[in-house]
Amino acid sequence: MAQFKTFEARVLRSVPLSEFTRHLEFEVEGVSRFGFVPGQWLSVKTTTPEGEEMTRAYSIASPPSENGHFAFCLNRVQDGFMSNYLCSLDEGAKIAFQGPFGDFILRPPLGDSVFIATGTGIAPFRSMLHWLLAEKDRHQGHRFWLLFGARYEQDIYYRKEFERLAAAHANFHFLPSLSRAAAEWKGLRGYVQEHLAELVGPSTGMHAYICGLDKMVKANRELLKNLGWDRTSIRYEKYD
Ligand SMILES: Cc1cc2nc3c(=O)[nH]c(=O)nc-3n(C[C@H](O)[C@H](O)[C@H](O)COP(=O)(O)OP(=O)(O)OC[C@H]3O[C@@H](n4cnc5c(N)ncnc54)[C@H](O)[C@@H]3O)c2cc1C
Predict the structure, then answer these.
(1) 66/156: higher pLDDT
(2) Which CATH code is given to the segment(s) 113-238?
(3) Gap from CA of 222 to ligand 1 centroid (Å)
(4) What is the number of other CB atoms lying within 10 angstroms of the CB of residue 76?
(5) pTM, rounded to two decimals
(6) Cβ atoms within 10 Å of 51's Cβ, excluding its own
(7) Is any atom of ligand 1 closer than 6 Å to the C-beta of 71?
(8) What number does the ligand 1 atom closest to the CA of 239 have?
(9) Which atom of ligand 1 lies closest to the CA of 61?
């Protein structure tokens, strides 16, 4: 079996995104640059107090940088060890990880694309969209939709940031949809898959990227297949 290098990274910042979700920024120790492709994930390793070795995958939630920095978007899973360990880390604490891994990356040739996420499934899309929209040569004027499902308005992670990106780029559309919206909410309501057919229609050469929990990924893949989309136009990453 291949031996992967283990890196150390230090927590630079840990900020809440909602009651159970945090944005963590890290700096990789001992390297000037840490390379990865938007959409990839890292395998975090630790040992529990009972001495059990544990590894879990986390998508990188930031675009590649020149300074060895990366971010995670983390959800505290009830009774889960790793997610609570990471969310409880103080600034300056260190973690061990291997990677980057994974092929949930933008599929060439780039085309108009819809990015569908719920919860922390937003992480790889934050990386991809910041990277894409940073330069015209990268996005080539193609159109991108980010369809993001959450329960309540306060669960729209990175809301201001995506709204700013959408305001700055006419080819990027940010579409949060709330399943338990308050009466005054003026945006989309319901589950993301309830809006997908209207948004994308039958297969037209667009690409779809789906990220989140199994149930939601399945529902969206099923819907796209029923619309006549080809399997190769749909990429997905499941968190459970
Ligand atoms: C490729 C990949 C990328 C991932 N990226 C992220 C990420 O960016 N952010 C993130 O928060 N998580 C991400 N995950 C999920 C993560 O790896 C862990 O599964 C999660 O943090 C739970 O680990 P734990 O040790 O706390 O709990 P565990 O003890 O492993 O899990 C407890 C229970 O919760 C379920 N579960 C697992 N993940 C979730 C979840 N996200 N929400 C609700 N229930 C869950 C499990 O099926 C299990 O039944 C990713 C998973 C994969 C495979």
Answers:
(1) 156
(2) 3.40.50.80
(3) 23
(4) 16
(5) 0.96
(6) 6
(7) no
(8) 51
(9) 8
Tell me how far the alpha carbon of residue 110 lies from the centroid of ligand 1, in angstroms.
29
Burial class (CB in 10 A: 0-12, 13-18, 19+), 220: buried
> Distances from the Cα of 88 to the Cαs of 9, 28, 62, 83, 91, in angstroms?
15, 19, 20, 9, 10
For the Cβ of 56 lying below 6 angstroms from any atom of ligand 1, the answer is: yes
- Residue 180's CB: how many other CB atoms inside 10 A? 12
pLDDT tens, position by position, 63-82? 999 899 999 999 999 999 99
Q: Nearest to residue 97, comparing CAs of 143, 46, 44? A: 44
Separation CA 101–CA 97 (nearest Å)? 11
If you measure from the C-alpha of residue 240 to the centroid of ligand 1, how many angstroms do you get, rounded to a whole number?
Answer: 6
191 lines ligand 1 (CB under 6 A): no
Q: Is the pLDDT of residue 33 over 90?
A: no
pLDDT for the residue 201: 81
pLDDT of residue 1: 58
Which sequence spans correspond to the domains of the chain? 7-101, 113-238
Q: CATH: 3.30.420.40, 3.40.50.970, 3.30.565.60, 2.40.30.10. Which one for 7-101? A: 2.40.30.10
Does 42 sit in the ligand 1 pocket, CB within 6 Å? no
**Residue 231, CA distances (Å) to 32, 50, 175, 211, 220 in order:** 39, 44, 24, 16, 12
